[in-house]
Amino acid sequence: MRHSFIISLCLAGTVALSACQKSGEQQVEEALVDLNVIDESNLNDVMLNAADPNEAVAHFVRTSSAHPDRIDLKRGLAQSLTRAGKHDDALTAWEATVEHPEAISEDQVYLAQAQIRTNHWDEAEETLNQVPPTHETYLRYRLEAMVADSNQDWDRADTFYETAAGLTTSPGAVYNNWGYSQLTRGNPRDAERLFQRALTFDRNLFTTKNNLVLARASQRNYELPVVPMTQTERAMLLHTIALSAIKQGDLSIGRAMLEEAIQTHPQHFEAAVRSLRALDNNVTN
């Protein structure tokens, strides 16, 4: 009887040990799964922030195909396509992201941005109208301003530009857009003021420097503004001034500016040479 009791005890111990081993194996597997998720999450972040955009696209195409229900992978694919400049594909990817049941308001904002980049302005306006008013972000109001601009709703555009500028510590791009809006409305002085303000936040924005020159030239002010610029930038801005002067009938000023642009550029300035040649041919004819 004692013998039977010992056998029973041993069997019970074996079962208990087996159960412990099984529980331990499950814990290891679960830990590995968690670890894989963490590693994958880190990889996704690396792909979004540091990798070549096309490599990131390939990564998210592959991983989202393996896990089609995960919104983070859909979002990552859409962001990567945007970075790669594949705006039509990015639009499709953002549409798929927004349709996901776990989509958030920011996804709608990025969809609107993709719609604007593909020239779907009416759709962008409709998308932004669906974003809750409590979702107040820099990007949302910058896009709202651009849509209002496209509708020539100037008061609304100005309000949105001002709001967007107040929601970021780097509003240079906002002031540049706002300035260009004023320029297209025929308000070059207001545009000049906004372009100068943009450069106080980011003096490396060449597009803003070029826009500033256009605003000044439209007022027949053909002097270069006092802003930081490289030698190449100086030559390009002189070229812009020259073309503006010629367009307004100030041919002698335009010609002088073209010659100075050619002399200033550290390399051969083909665009300015062609402009000068065209000007001379037109004057001769």
TrEMBL record:
SMART domains named in the record: TPR (SM00028)
Xref: SUPFAM superfamilies: TPR-like
InterPro entries with a match to the protein in the record: TPR-like_helical_dom_sf (IPR011990), TPR_rpt (IPR019734)
Pfam families documented for this protein: TPR_16 (PF13432)
Protein name, as recorded: Tetratricopeptide repeat protein
